[in-house]
Design brief:
Helix 1 packs antiparallel against helix 4, helix 2 runs antiparallel to helix 5 and helix 3 packs parallel to helix 5. The chain starts with 5 loop residues before the first helix and ends in a 10-residue tail after the last helix. The chain is built from five helices and three strands; from the N terminus they run αβααββαα. The protein is 66% helix and 6% strand. By secondary structure, it is mainly α.
């Protein structure tokens, strides 16, 4: 038997959790947008995937790897994953890459890549609200938003790095 008030306490706890999760998502998204707009040197190695790894880890810990139940939940998860891959590819090809005067390979996001990032997050949050409204709780949530963003960031980083390392330095005429 459920104690009187226990359901209300649980509801308040869930609301507080949702507020904390929302604040964390907003802070992570703001940080990501800021980082995208900064010029940065393109480096080799797995360390460049650190942001994607952090997003995936936080997402996994907060339920982002929960197995969906039912066809609709799988469809929602699959559509988020496919959208993440597409947006990651687009952002990777649209990220500005160049070799600076010192020979460093550089990259910087553009207004379009930031817009695509925000659109992906908004669509995933929309799918999360849709899933919750229709009772597909295991289909989406805070954790899955972060996992989807992690996939998109990793794909973008991979494509942009490949592009940057195929650039050839401009030949400099010899001076006499």
């Amino acid at each position: 038997m459920v104690e009187p008030g226990a359901a209300e306490d649980e509801h308040r706890r869930m609301e507080r959790t949702q507020i904390v999760e929302s604040v964390v998502v907003i802070a992570l998204m703001a940080f990501s947008v800021y980082k995208q707009t900064q010029r940065s040197e393109v480096k080799r190695g797995m360390g460049v995937f650190l942001i994607a790894i952090v997003y995936a880890a936080i997402g996994a810990v907060t339920g982002g790897l929960a197995v969906p139940t039912g066809a609709a939940a799988w469809l929602l998860l699959g559509s988020g994953a496919v959208l993440s891959l597409i947006v990651g590819l687009a952002r990777g090809y649209l990220t500005r890459v160049w070799i600076d005067a010192d020979g460093h390979r550089m990259s910087q996001g553009t207004a379009l890549t930031v817009g695509l990032f925000i659109a992906l997050v908004a669509s995933k949050v929309g799918l999360t609200v849709f899933a919750g409204y229709h009772g597909y709780q295991s289909a989406s949530g805070f954790g899955q938003v972060l996992v989807v963003v992690a996939v998109m960031i990793a794909v973008q980083e991979y494509v942009a790095r490949r592009r940057a390392f195929t650039l050839q330095p401009a030949s400099v005429p010899a001076t006499v």
